[in-house]
Specification:
The protein is an alpha/beta fold. Helix content is 38%, strand content 22%. The structure holds 3-methylbut-3-enyl trihydrogen diphosphate.
């Protein structure tokens, strides 16, 4: 079983509110269909979630009643993106079923404290494809929190011990620095947990309430410590996801799971 995350920057234009990249999603759905593997799909919020979450300061927790409207609007938008993702999967005959995080997770002080995994287990066992996504959630001490797709990947990896975790990004993989702003950035084909600590990434210029690549490196480190391999690949390049899934060589970064 694989855990796959489609980054919000692959599925949406992060600079423009609620702009869905339909063609990219159709291509990725086709590749998932052709590969015929068992997996849980997690997708980011992209410009359906980050812009509103930033506007209403949702990642800071409750500060003013106006944020209730912001929470509700953000949830509706990420749910809409989820529907677009499901539609593309259904067109390719994938029996995808949505599992909205806000209904199963409890957060406290911006950290998940309780997660009900039973739906994931039941759907996987029956042969469905569970699809979950970056969402807003209630938080027992802070009122509410953002639950990123990367946090979901981390808790699902710990519980379900997938064969591999795959991050589908808008870059070929990991670089020594941010390739979007640094022409000297070098591509890294394989890395260990120790290597990850050396790489710095600059902040993204668009609204990102979940720390972009920097947060992702923390997530990957904790997955690697569970002994699980992580693959980073480019979702904009046709068939890379498919090739990885069927075990064919293609451009990607492999972060080897293992001890620190
Ligand atoms: C963010 O999820 C969720 C909200 C802003 C509500 P992610 O952090 O997983 O989204 P991307 O992949 O960065 O777009």
């Amino acid at each position: 079983m694989y855990l796959i995350k489609f980054g919000g920057s692959v599925l949406t234009d992060k600079t423009k509110a609620a702009s869905f990249k339909q063609e990219t999603m159709n291509q990725l759905a086709l590749e998932l269909h052709k590969a015929k593997k068992q997996y849980i799909l997690v997708h980011g919020a992209g410009s359906f979630g980050h812009i509103l979450a930033k506007k209403y300061h949702l990642s800071e927790g409750y500060t003013t009643p106006k944020q209730y409207q912001g929470f509700a609007l953000t949830h509706a938008q990420v749910q809409l993106l989820n529907l677009y993702v499901l539609n593309a999967l259904h067109i390719h005959h994938i029996p995808a079923v949505s599992i909205p995080p806000h209904a199963l997770l409890t957060f406290s002080n911006h950290q998940p404290t309780q997660v009900d995994f039973s739906l994931f287990h039941k759907y996987i066992k029956t042969g469905f494809t569970p699809v979950t996504f970056g969402d807003v959630v209630l938080d027992e001490t802070r009122g509410f929190s953002i639950c990123s797709g990367d946090v979901l990947i981390q808790i699902l990896a710990a519980q379900l011990k997938p064969e591999k975790v795959i991050f589908v990004l808008d870059e070929d993989g990991l670089y020594t620095s941010n390739p979007k702003i640094d022409a000297t950035a070098e591509f890294i084909p394989t890395a260990t947990i120790q290597d990850l600590k050396k790489y710095s990434t600059s902040e993204n210029t668009y609204a990102d309430v979940t720390r972009g690549m920097e947060g992702k490196l923390d997530t990957i480190q904790s997955i690697a410590k569970m002994g699980i391999d992580t693959i980073l690949l480019n979702g904009n390049k046709k068939n890379r996801l498919y090739e990885i899934l069927i075990g064919q060589n293609t451009r990607h970064t492999l972060i080897c799971g293992g001890k620190e």
